[in-house]
Amino acid sequence: MKSSVITFPGSNCDRDMDVALKKFGFKNKMVWHADAELPKSDLVVLPGGFSYGDYLRCGSMASKSKIMQSVINFANSGGMVMGICNGFQILVETGLVPGVLLRNKYLEFICKNVFVKINDKKNKYFKNVDNEVLEFHIAHNEGNYFCTNDQLKEIEDNNQIAINYCDENGKIEDQFNPNGSLKNIAGIFNKEKNVLGMMPHPERMIDTSLSGEDGSLFFKNLINNLK
Amino acid sequence: MKISVIITLKKDVLDPQGKVIHQTLDGMGFQDIHEVRQGKYFEIDTKETNNDKAKAKVEEMCKKLLANLVIENYKIIDPK
To answer: Does the pTM of the predicted model rise above 0.80?
Structure first.
């Protein structure tokens, strides 16, 4: 399986993602944002970080960079595109997934482990994950998911919510919502579910010497689902 | 020609920064405030000399980059 990780000026989780993808069997290539062509890929990842210093709105500049036209075309033809953290912010700015990510409700940069509940497993990202709840890491200032009422209705009707913030038993409540996200949304799909945007970082949970291994479950499963 | 644009958050969108500014102003003694909403202001100096054409171009910029229409409104200020 071939993957590509796009590096924007200010990306800082691109190398971690490279390590994670390779650990679970992907042949990964790093792709510079100013390139026009995407290498042949089974998965494209927009990594976390602070592309363009978060100027204007997080992800807004990166969403207009040269490589993104190829990524958008790839996604529109059914290609698997995953945006993590800043990558999620870039995805919403391209319009590939609906909504926006606002400043965290209590204006704090949040850096901690959280639990997320998988809302939908009928997709290549979460199919066959045994767990209902995963422990992932979040580190962001703008992860407060918001969309219009019309968009929310559409997202819910199409079952596009991927994961919600919850407690360790999978209880989705306001008190387990770290950033004020609408409906505790931590990640969403496009309609076709080939594009996933999520705030949590699975690539930070792939080794026992890090703070957990639920990211390993995610990546092992992902590569098997893509085969 | 210089054209100005003001971007504001839509009414129903939570503005935590505006809220904190409101609270701070309140603490400073400015206690007669209903609400504070924070926005953005741009000055665009364009080579275009035709007023209507310049405004149309800036409108396109607003829709494509300067504003995110899910949460923001834009207002183009007429060049003087």
So the answer is: yes
